[in-house]
Amino acid sequence: MTHPSYDTENIFAKILRKEIPCKKLSECPHTLTFYDINPQAPIHILVIPKGSYLDMDDFSKSASIEEQAAFVAAIGTAAELSGAHKKGYRLISNIGGFGHQEVPHLHVHILGGEPIGPMRMR
Ligand code: 5GP
Question: Ligand 1 center to residue 102 CA distance, Å?
Answer without folding.
Answer: 7
